[in-house]
Each structure stands twice: as structure tokens, then as C-alpha cells.
Amino acid sequence: MAKVSVQFTLNGAEKAEFIDSGTTLLHALRDKIGDTSPKGGCHQGTCGACSVIIDGELRLSCLTLAETCSGAAITTTSGLSEGGVLHPLQRAFLDAFATQCGFCTPGMIMAAKVLLDHTPNPSRDEVVEALSGNICRCTGYEPIIQAVLTAARSNSQNAARGESKKMELRKSYFADQRKDDLHEIGQPRPRSDSPGHVTGKTAYFADRNFPGMLHLKMVRSPHHHARILSIDISEAEKHPGVVKILTAKDVPHNVYTILILIQIGPEDETVLADGKVRWKGEAVVAVLAETERAAQEAAAKVKVDYEVLPAVFDMEEALKPGAPIVNEYHGRNYYLYDSGECRKVRFGDVEAGFASADHVLEQTYQSSPIEHAPTETTGCIVAPEGNDRFTCYTNTQAMFFTLDNASIILQMPGNRLHFVGGTVGGGFGGKVDVIVEPIAILGAKLTGRPVSFIYSRAEEMQISSPRAAEKVVIKDGVMKDGRIVARKVTGYTDAGAYSRHSPYGAQKGAGHYPGPYTIPNVWIDTYCVYTNRTPSSAMRGFGVTIGDFALEVQMDKLARLIGMDPLEFRFINAYRDGDMKAHRQPTEGAALIECMQEASRAANWPVAEKFMAMSSYAKGA
Amino acid sequence: MALALQTFSTVKDANAALKAAGTRYLGGGTLAVRAANEGDVSVSSFIRSTEPSLSAITVSGGKVRIGASVTMAAIARHPDLSSLSHAAHAVGGPAIRNMATVGGNLFAPAPYGDFTVALLALDATLSTDGGDLPIETFLVKRESIHAIVTAVGFSLPAEGSFRFLKVSRIKPKGISVLSIAAVLEQAPDGTVSSARIALGCMADRPMRATATEKALLGRILTSHGIAPALAVANDGTAPITDPLASAWYRNEVLPVHLGRLLLA
Amino acid sequence: MAIRRGRGVAAINYPTGMNLGGDPTQALVHSTPTGNFMVTLSSVDLGQGMKQIMAQICAETIGVPTDRVVVDTADTDTGPHCMGTFASRGTHRAGNAVIQAAREARQVMLEVAAEELEVNASDLETDGQGNILVKGAPQKSISIFDVALSAHFKRGRSISGRGMFLIPRSYPEKETGAMKPSTCYAHACTVAEVEVDDETGEVTVLTVKNVFEIGRALNPKMVEQQLVGGSWMGISHALYETTEPYYPNRDHGGTDFNQYLMPGPGDLAQTEIIVLERPSADGPYGAKGPGEMCANPQIPAVANAVFDAVGVRIDTLPITPERILRALKAQASN
After folding, report:
1. Average pLDDT over residues B174-196
2. Is the pTM of this model over 0.95?
3. What is the ipTM, given to two decimal places?
4. Is C323 on the interface with B (CB under 8 A)?
5. Are A489 and A524 in contact (CB under 8 A)?
């Protein structure tokens, strides 16, 4: 490999390095020089987390070859604070609570610094423009915009669209149930992790570098559903830099399911495909090599011979008799609950309710899969400790859940595994699937070398589990006076090819319907359906988000159907303390009515006085 | 083969190096380095040239010459190219504009390549060591062109005659649903005397809206006057379908956005 | 061309913690020799602020300022078990575990202080500033610094505590679905105002007014950041996001942040956040989990506002310009 010398100043200090030709500046800074403040969020130039300043201009270090920077002056966020004193931008990000996971923060600060260097007193629009190449998934951008404006000591005179009010706490509600004399609770203390975020010092799992670390790349299925006729790794094994190639036979307990830990089976998914692939993108062969490039090149030389099988993508099609079976471990295209083909809730007599209703409305709602899109992709680095223990630096959302599943998959006692994490660049439910850790640990075990397995942005988008697509059919009986007298909900969750957390999500939906309303007759069926697509799993609002969309659009339609104000219609049906829910729990701690009352005031959406006089505490009014 | 970069001081030498298998010219890196990062192992050698003319902008006698290595940011801030700054500014966010080059933009597949849409409307001529070629010729066969494009040249449009619109779903920066560039000249009575209109995302590469151009001639820019032009806006289009929009949607809204641009 | 304006409302609730319970979290708390407190967990901070909130909960319970508490998470060699950070459970479950551990540690601390001051532990209180006082006689006091030194070097006591929180698992009844999904629920009501371009189907969200009831705002600034960000994500879900734009067709899935759409900094709605606090019976200082709930009500509120503006229902997410335009054309042809 051709080595080239590169010399530049980094935050004012001279740096001279020998690097492999073709190395990006991002890798040179992080892996060679040890400045991990620029983050690798996409390596595509689409997230801005790797932004640095080169000779006064904002650049993406992931798309810049280090050797083109010779003689340049490079600034990174880690170099902004001098003598422990934060740069005004760093201070402003702290004060504005403009960091959450912190992964995008160094790049944001770089973009903001270039702006303020050239435009000391920017308008809001100029700030927005300056930040436009940087993705943040946590904050909604507004706190970041405010931080930059504050740092510029600029009064954004024009309260343009987007400018938001400070949050207000309405202490008048429920004051009788609350003690407000606490010392630390209720205080807006600064976040202890923010100083690390704004200086680029917070250590995420990938901010570690180990000598001799191998890189794992996955060979993935190009087909939605296919039989594997043969796998030929002979060419790939000979490729320079390749250290190990793993196939299904190398995985001690290859067929697994993560919820087995809470007794939800059957095991239905393979770590590496064995005999079949069931979705486009499924992992088939893992390549471990000295460099990412060598792993990619070798992966291209793995030959897999497939016999393509009919695939099913639509939930309705999948549930029809004769549909191709997606997953033989289930033997049918839906998850079999102890209650049968769906989770059921039966409360009152829903058919009698429909019969008595003035109007019956049945509507269907649908969604498509949604990506968590954390700025930090899923990944881990595993280091053998030399004593038959393996330390796994990971961004999992669930440490022991992942450790225990890895222990099962690898048939390795849990005491051999040491997981270190807890500082994660955004999750939103996308990092609970135990996908990268087991195979990386296996690679480290079989090679005795540290192993890095980090999803590319494309893998994060299309390979990691999305929020499931859902279909929700709601049938309601409603009276002219606004009372909903019957609600029947049939929910379908598109699990994709494997269960992961989806049986749990569909179950959660059953517990959530019919929403925060008291309805005397309720019938709920929720199905978890298998199709030949990327397995879905948990995401923020799992089992509820799409259901709430369906329920609340349905509520709007019902109100309009009977000519009633949509907000007043909700007051009529809102649950209150003591009301029996469909799943037979009495309501406790309700506060829907008060939220609606406050919304009525805040949005200047007046409702009748009797609704403003209602309370969640008990029926009355 | 590991990746390597070869730097040449002249375009001639770089062109010679590009004849080898597995080579790709490196402009700003926004396409080429990205492809390598994403696992495109077909390229093992990046070639670039540091010849100064590649980075020069010259404007004289109403003629513009922009070296292929000139970045979008450099165009956007050039005082003599203020009429084009909007189009250059439409490419990416600030960091991308500091890197993305005119030369790279010429090769960018839809939905990228918004500046090339502008160049098509401007009837640019591309320079290579092997001679010049009109942008339309280039666009037809760009996949097979291995010579380095060294510069683009065009006549500076008359004051107020160049219009550009990029429609995007994300503000202020997002890739194109479509983009439209137009060079319109009007007679003293307000009628259109010449029109050259280019569209982005309405095919797999920038295309001329020739039917629209014809239908605008002799018309005034009122909603009535442009109606015939909008009616043929989709003539010859074959829009891309991508995560942003389907071909159907692009065809549906092209006349709407074209109308707004013409009436602006 | 017409820009048409509409508004919509939605009201929701959201369960705190893993559905049906059965999701334990443990915590350990101990003091250092100089009276600082370590909270040891295996819980994960995704950016929501777990570390800071656990520090405030521990500090409140022990009776010291928050900066005297260090949260060590997440290491499976040292941190006790936590089910994980998901299902709006982090603050609720780990917070309760930290309270239990901190109470136990506080009790030892007060016992040591009682020995030093020669009073009963039950007669002592903390001032929240790092001191332990005799109730009614505040001049008689000892610093927690000195108490910790005494515990370590004089009295051989470990000022420490173990905490565990578990909601026993509920098993749904097969035929009726009788079950206990959750012990507490957060609430929200959102009103969204939109403009719809009826020639292109483009939607601009002008304002969202969100009222959230979250039990207790343990740190109001951190609540605000989570709710503001969640509100943005809700709008994003409503109008932009999907990995499969032509679902159930698998083609044209986005693979980068150019193709995977989310509102940019120039697309922000004017956002208002109002918080109500009805403490939950089993939450740490009454807190519920608002982390997921806060991104939900904007979706139907925006959908309803789009209908209010242009009179078409888009019942499939996301509500793209294309879906709106198709519906408008279908409406016009009817």
C-alpha cells in the first residue's frame, strides 16, 4: 500500500504523518492523529458531522483526501477552547441546551464558526443557511439556531417563522397533587455531558482505536427471497488483507430471536443466512480484513449462488391462503399468540354498540416503514482482553439484553463478555436489535484481533430495522350527541421477515387501543405479519405512534360526521379517573382533559364552558 | 487494490494517467470519494490535476470561462457572476459548495447536477484537451467521455434574462424534485424574443424544454401569454422516480413551477 | 395558485415503560471518602439525558447538590442490570431504582452523622447544600464531607445502597385481553396550523402548539429540549419520513440524508410547548416517560389540518405532496 507523507497544521499545531494514499482526512484525523472530534455519521457528505475548517472554509473531512491538505491550516472543534476556556459558540451551545446526544455538535459548531468568522452578526436566515448541511436528529434544530444567534450576540429582530417561545410550565393544574419544594428536582441544572459534546471530547464507541483492528463487512442478499445453492469464499479468502471469512456454520447458535429472553419465541432468525435468504439485504457472509477497503474488495469476490423464490411484500397478500411462506420457523405468515392469530381485547358487545349507534364509520389507515436515522450509525468495536474475555464497546440501547443474547448466540458464558457503552449518538429504538455485537465478538474470538463492525449510512437506512409499516382499520359507532358507543380496531404490523420486537409491538397496540377515550364496547385484534422485507422493530412510540395517527384522524372524521367541533367531541369521550378501560384496568392519573383545556386556550380554539369546567379527577360536570 | 491518489501538474499528464484501468478523475470529491467510501471497488486510482487554469474564472467581453475545478462557492461569490450565484448556491450546503466543482457537476446523475441545468440553458461550451464540445453533445454521451473537461464557457446572459428555480422538499438545502433554468430575452414590447430553457430531474440528465421554448416565442409573460408554453412543458420529459418524488409527480408539477418562474 | 390554510387537533396518551411490565432496572449508590456520590448503572444515555437526570434524582434523595453526584454508566462489569433504554422507561424505571439505592445510602449517612452528633438519626435532616442538621436546632450540624470521612476511616461503615425497580409482568387474558399494559400514562394535545399549496401539494407547518402532561418536569430545560425535538420528529413523520416511499413496493428506498427526508432548519414550525404535571403514583418524584409520547400528537394534528385546509383526507403516512396532489385531482374530477 502506497504511503504518502502529509503535513498540515491542526488547531495551530504542526502535524506530519505517513498515511496510506487515498485516506480521507476524517480517518487521518481520527485514526492517525487521534482527534476524534469530527464524527463519521455517513461518509457520504450528507450529514455534516465530520465538518472541519480548512484554510477558513467549511469542508467535509469524510470526502476530503488527507494528502490534498498538505500545507493547509485545519481547525476542528476540539481546538476551539483555549486553556480550558470555552469558545463563545461552545458556551452558547451549553447555555441554550442545544446538545442532546451530542454526535452532531462538533460539526454544527464548525459550521457556525465559519459563519460567524465571516458574518459576525448574522440574521436568522443566514444561520439557517449556514447549518443547512448538518443533520441533527434530536433537537429539532431550534435550540441550535438560538445558540448560534446568542453566540453572535445578535438580536434576531425578525421573529420569523420557526422562532419558538420558551416552554411554559402551567403549575396551576394538579397543584394539589404535587410538592414543589424540592432542591434538585424541578431545577434546570446544566447537563453534565454537554461540555464533552461541545468540545468534541465525549467518547462514543467508535472513538476508540486499537492496534491491529480488523474491519467487518457483510455480504448481503441481493434477493428478497431465495434459496442459497452454494457459497464460494475461496477467491475472497485469498484476497490480500483478508484475515477471516465467516459463514453460518461458524456461528455456534445461528438461529435465534432476541425476545427469547422474555420467553417470546420461536427462534426464527439467522445471524448469517443458512440455506435461505428472506429479505433483500440479509447478512450472508462476514468478511474480516485489515482495512475497510480490503474487506469491501473481498466481499465483492464472495460468490453466492441463489435460486430466487417468490416473495410477498403486502400484508394482505401475505395473509391469503397459498401465499409464499416467508419464515418456516413460524410456518405461517403471522405470529401465533397464545390467543391465536392475533392479540385480542373484548369488552362489552361491540356489535350491539354498532346496532345502537346513530352513525357507523369504518376507515383504513396505513403507514410505510420509518427510519430512526440517528446521526451515529449502529456499531461496535470488540477487543479481546487476552484472558478469554471480550470487551464490546457498543452503542446498544440495552447492555445486558445484548450481552445475554450474544451469550446465547455464541454459546459463550456471560462472564466472558464485558460490554461498555451508555454514550450513544441517538437511538430512537434503532439500537436494540442485537445485530452487530454477536458476529463482531465471534470475529474477535476466532482471530484474536480487535474487530470493528459499524453500519454504513446506507445499511443504517435500509438494513437496520425500521419502524414497522402498519395498517389500522377502525370501525366506530357514534351517537349524534357525540358519544362513541362502539369501537372495533384491527391492526396489522408488518414485521418483515423476522420477529425481532414486532410481536411485542403488535401486542402493545392491543393494550393501547381504543385510545384515551372511554368507550363501552370495544373489540381489538392486532396481528404481527411476516413479509419479505427488512425486519422491522422498535422505534420511538413503538406500537402506538401509527395507531394514534389512525385514532386521531378517525376522531376528526367522526366529529365532522356528526357536525361537532373536533375538540369538543374529544372532551365528550375523554377518559377520566376511575373509568374502566377496555383491557379492564381502571383509569388512574388521567390528564387528557386538562391538556385539551390548555390547548384550547393556547391555540385560541374556544370550546363550551362546560368542557373548560371538566376535570380528569372524576365524572361530574 | 488499495486506493491511491495520483496528482499531476498538467491536464495532459492527468489525461494520460486516466487511460489506465480503474482510474477516476477526482474533482471536489463529493461524488468520487463518496463512491469509494461506499464500497465502490471498481476505482483503485484517483487522478487529479493541479493545473492552475482549472481553478480560474475569467470574465471578459461578456464571455465567461470557468475552470472545471472551480467550486460552487467560488461561482456564488464571484462579483461578475452574480446573475448565476443563485444557481451555484442551489448545490448542497455550505461545505458541499466549498468542495463541489463545475466539472463534477457536469457528470452528476439526477437528482444532482443542478448547476449543469443552468449551463445547459446558457448554451455552454465545454473544453477538453481534445477540443471543445457543446454541452448538449456532452450530455448525450457523458458516460463515455474519459477526457478531462477543463472548463466551461458561455456568454454572460443579459441583465435580468437568466432565471433559475430549484424545487426541493427540504429547506434551505435539499436535493431536487426538479430544477429549471431559463434564459429569456424580451423585445421592447415585452414579447419573448428568445428562450432557452433547461430542466433537471425531468430525465436522467439535464434536458432542453424545446417545445416550451418555441411556444414562448412572441408571447408576453402573463398567465394567459405563457399558457401554451405550459401546456407543452412535459413534451419529451421522462422524469426520474426516486425517494423524493415519482415521475408522475414531477410531470404534474413541472408546469406549475415553470409558470411561477416565468411569471416571477 | 392558492395557498390554503387549515388547522387540526389531536389528543393522545402514552404508557410509561415496557408494555405489560416485567422490565427491571437496578442501581447502586455509594459515597466516596469525601462525601461525593457515585451512581452505578448499566442504563444507556442515548442523548435524552439519563446521566444528568439520575444525578439530580440521587442528589435530591440523598440531600446534596447535583454536582456532588457522578453517574457511572454503562458498564456490565460494574453496573447492575437494566433492561435498556426504550419504551419511555429510562427515567421511570432507573429513577425509581436510584431513589431506592439513594435512600438506603442516605440512611447509613444519617446513622453515621447521628453517631457523630450524638443524636438519633431520625432527628436529622439534610439542607440540600451538603450538610446534615438536627431538626429544630440547625446550629448543630455536620457536613456530609465529614460524615463520609468518618464512615470510611473511623466507623467502618459503607455509605451505600442498592436499588431495584420492577413492575411485575402482566399476562394478557387470552379471550378478553384483560391485562395491565402500564402503570402510568403521559398525555398530550396538539393543535397544528398548516398551509397547503393546492397546485403542488406542498405543506408548510406554520405553528404547532403542544400541551404535554408528563408527571413531573425533573429538569425543565431538559424536558423542553426533548419535547421540542420530539415535536419536530412528529411533524417529520407526518409529512416526510419513510425508508420505502412506494411501500409495499421495495424500490427507491433512501440510503442517505439527501434521500431520507426530514425537515431542515428552514422548515421549522413555530413551536409552543406547555407542560402540565400530574405526578404519577409510582414515578420518581412523580415523573412519567414523555420521550416517545412527545413525537406522536403532531402526526394526526397535521393530517387533520391538511384536511381542514384542502378538504382531502390522506390516510396513509407520510402525507407527501404527491399523495395530496393525487387526492386533490381525484376530488376535482368527482
Report:
1. 97
2. yes
3. 0.98
4. no
5. yes
